[in-house]
Amino acid sequence: MIAEILSVGTELLMGQIVNTNAQFISEHFPETDVYVYYHTVVGDNEKRLKECLLIALSRADVVITTGGLGPTQDDLTKEVVSMAIGKKMVVNEEVLKGINGFFAKKGRRMTKNNAKQAYFPEDSILITNKMGTAPGCLIEYQNKIIIMLPGPPREMQPMFMESVIPYFSKNTSHKLHSVFIRLFGIGESSMENKISDLIKTQTNPTIAPYAKSGEVTLRVTAKYNAKSESYKNIMKPVLDEIDKRLGEYIYSYDNIDLKEVVFLLLRDKHLTVSFAESCTGGLLSKYLTDISGSSEVFDSSFITYSNESKIIQLGVSKKTLIKHGEVSEQTVSEMVSGLQKKTTSNLVLAITGIAGPSGGSRKKPVGTVYLGLGYKKKIHTQKLNLWGSRDRIRHVTCLHAFNFIRKTLLQEENV
Amino acid sequence: MIAEILSVGTELLMGQIVNTNAQFISEHFPETDVYVYYHTVVGDNEKRLKECLLIALSRADVVITTGGLGPTQDDLTKEVVSMAIGKKMVVNEEVLKGINGFFAKKGRRMTKNNAKQAYFPEDSILITNKMGTAPGCLIEYQNKIIIMLPGPPREMQPMFMESVIPYFSKNTSHKLHSVFIRLFGIGESSMENKISDLIKTQTNPTIAPYAKSGEVTLRVTAKYNAKSESYKNIMKPVLDEIDKRLGEYIYSYDNIDLKEVVFLLLRDKHLTVSFAESCTGGLLSKYLTDISGSSEVFDSSFITYSNESKIIQLGVSKKTLIKHGEVSEQTVSEMVSGLQKKTTSNLVLAITGIAGPSGGSRKKPVGTVYLGLGYKKKIHTQKLNLWGSRDRIRHVTCLHAFNFIRKTLLQEENV
Predict the structure, then answer these.
(1) Closest Cα in chain B, distance from residue A415 (Å)
(2) A-chain residues within 8 Å CB-CB of B281?
(3) Cβ pair B192, B183 in contact under 8 A
(4) Chain A contacts in chain B segment 35-54 (CB below 8 A)
(5) Beta strand pairing status for A62-66 and A119-121?
(6) Do B161 and B109 share a structural domain?
(7) A347 vs A336: CA distance, rounded Å
(8) What SS3 class is residue B291?
(9) The CATH number of the domain where A224 resides is what?
(10) Which residues contact B172 (CB under 8 A, 6 or more apart)?
(11) Among A202, A266, A339, B3, fewest CB within 10 Å belongs to which?
(12) Are residues B344 and B209 in the same domain?
């Protein structure tokens, strides 16, 4: 089936918000064999909305609207749809009672505007909204299906996943299953080169590469008949081949990111870490502590941004800083030694580098970063030559740092 | 004039990317009296693209396309436009030479596919692309204007700002000027209440409130005739009134954020800072060091995530931790004292709190945060009761921390 997403809202046309609803729906609809061919955005204007709706009904089997279900005069999606398809608006007593109760609880009386949210085109099926007061609805009309959902993503998304997807799934025995393979240490084009034959000849499963600053993800999607097939069998030959060619770069098959992989590794091994950060300025620690429960593995960090603080807090020698510079293998090694003395962590990692945009030189351009890792009485170092903006360099440095930890811990297992 | 944005690309319909181009253009076009009434997204398909183009030409004065200008078979925007309006495709020799040179430099020969990028509908005006190989173009056709830009935002954005905006500006003597007033410490609805009469009766300038987690921005936009009016005169009465009612919450009129305001304050006063972070885990330091040049004011931070590290690194007493808990006024004060001993910074700030989602109790629920600030031998503390996700609590804590520093430094000036 072909779908069109019709997003209603002047704030989209003024560029105040970006249309993430269209992206979300487009991404998930194919799971039920519904394919999005058009997105349209129109303002809160009766005439233009009606015209857009009629165009959508002329070229798509499914029209899904987002926005315009609220209580104000501006919200007119349901009203325009009912008019366009010649249906009356009828009240849903249960919804009306719910809205009444909502205001009673607050010690206020429901206004006429709010009652508007309890009216729906005749014969429509209600879609419950657990996150807000405006329910959605679905109506079948002359072999077409019209679905109306609210605009706020935190309301729209669960309604789509919990009501719309199941509605279409029941009509199809075909299902989709995706595996997200996450890679680090290889660029998008190098990766594509290594599997270009697989991408070109893909049928089922399909393979889609995505790049995000410093990282690559491959989505492998199998289409299968849930009654007679197993997606595992369909996927296996392709997954095996990808693993053979790209295995050294793959760090996850579960769509979890590097920091989570490192967190789980450390937790399973009952290890704690501490960091010393210079150019990343706290970003590495921030990433690890994004994870609730990171206190199980994370002890402390020293953000030694100034040279003086490297000397005072970590005991880096002034001589080293003068002779080799703050961005050097020697300095990062001394930062590691300092960390080992100051903390009781099992594994410590230090970072010093030039994140830019200024501070680079011919010998040490912006993007020069040293990592130092101390584990089991050994100090390992790594030099990175990164490119891009300050934000990118800081972010990619953290990815390398997590990967350094990951590789060190996995190597140990293989010895 | 009324505009429609027609974005071409199957990756948008598959939800692989979100249509930020439509947002960007919608936001900036009104500066030249062009108003976006429709967004449409369609795939790389000749028939459907042509149909969408004809609909757009029937309802808008300006049709601006993004995407489909590249070298592959899939890229067919220029071809479809020229067909739809009955123009021949003609080669632009200069562009062709440029593409040839691009490949020669790489020691490769230009393929036929790449030559495609040098062909444009007859009579069109070229739009230079400094960031890529595919130029855009503009063509006037029967009182309509069709503009074709490439899809990648880093190519499209400068082309739009440097070529499209000036093209339309020359036809209008009206200009827009916006001031962004940034506020902290007041919610969106309280702010709206305080100025609801101004918002309701707005004509010129217009007032638009925006909320972003923990912060509020007011955009005040004046429309003026550049030849005969000054935007300052139009804005002044409204800006004065807003300042009178909301001045205590306003921290910037220049659309710079809290961390930058703090950075500039510290720099101008030749002060340095150090932080001790517990629940924010490095985020406060990360925010400050997002600013290139922050080394002028930032010395170091201690991220003391574990209780043990609070004792070892900052000298917080075990007794205090047991008696009052790690999230308490007493603990944060001792963290401040520890920081003052460990660093030579003029101002130090410490944070301890419960970011959640777990770790809360009835007495200290998730969102309980203490800030401690040490400056000129005095220690000030502040208790926050925040709500929301772990990410939100950590982010809003940092905003409060920066605001605490800002208020302390400004108070000093007023004494």
Answers:
(1) 32
(2) 282, 285-286, 288-290, 294, 298
(3) no
(4) 35-43, 48, 51-52
(5) unpaired
(6) yes
(7) 10
(8) coil
(9) 3.30.70.2860
(10) B32, B33
(11) A202
(12) no
User: Where among B232, B252, B272 does a domain terminate?
Assistant: B252
Q: How far apart are CA A290 and CA A281, in angstroms?
A: 16
Q: Is the same domain home to A132 and A119?
A: yes
Do A180 and A286 sit in the same domain of this protein?
Answer: no
Opening angle at CA B69, ends B64 and B73, nearest 5: 135
A180 shares contact with chain B (CB less than 8 Å): no
CB contact under 8 A, A16 and B303: no
| Number of domain units in chain A | 3
Closest partner CB to B38 (pick from A24, A41, A355): A41
Q: Is B19 on the interface with A (CB under 8 A)?
A: yes
Q: Is the CB of B38 less than 8 angstroms away from the CB of A23?
A: no
By CA distance, what is B296's nearest residue in A? Answer: A306
Q: Are residues A15 and A164 in the same domain?
A: yes
pLDDT in single tens digits along all 415 residues of chain A? 999 999 999 889 989 899 999 999 999 998 888 999 999 999 999 999 999 999 999 999 999 999 999 877 778 999 999 999 999 999 999 999 988 888 888 777 777 778 889 999 999 999 999 888 789 999 999 999 999 999 999 899 999 999 999 999 887 777 778 899 999 998 877 888 889 888 888 888 988 877 777 888 888 989 888 788 889 999 999 999 999 999 999 999 988 999 999 999 999 999 999 999 999 999 999 999 999 999 999 999 999 999 999 999 999 999 999 999 999 999 999 999 999 999 999 999 999 999 999 999 999 999 999 999 999 999 999 999 998 889 999 999 999 999 999 999 999 877 6
Containing structural domain, residue B140: 2-169
Residue where one domain finishes, among candidates B130, B146, B169: B169
Asked if A327 and A364 touch (Cβ cutoff 8 Å), the reply is yes
Question: What are the beta bridge partners of residue A274?
Answer: A300, A348
CA atoms within 13 A on the CB side of A360: 17
Q: A291 to chain B, minimum CA–CA distance in Å?
A: 9
Residue B73 shares a structural domain with residue B145: yes
Residues A145 and A42 in one domain: yes
B210 interaction partners in chain A (CB closer than 8 Å): 16
| B266 and B370 co-located in one domain | yes
Q: Which residues contact A224 (CB under 8 A, 6 or more apart)?
A: A174, A175, A176, A177, A230, A231, A234
Which residue is closest to B60 within chain A, CA to CA?
A48
Partner-chain contact A285 B288, CB within 8 Å: no
d(CA A310, CA A351): 11
Which B positions 116-155 lie with beta carbon below 8 A of chain A? Answer: none
- How many Å lie between the alpha carbon of A105 and the closest alpha carbon of chain B? 20
Is the distance from CB of B325 to CB of B359 less than 8 angstroms? no
List the end-to-end C-alpha distance of chain A, in Å, as a whole number: 54
CATH number of the domain that residue A118 is part of: 3.40.980.10
A13, A25, A26: residue with CB nearest B37: A13
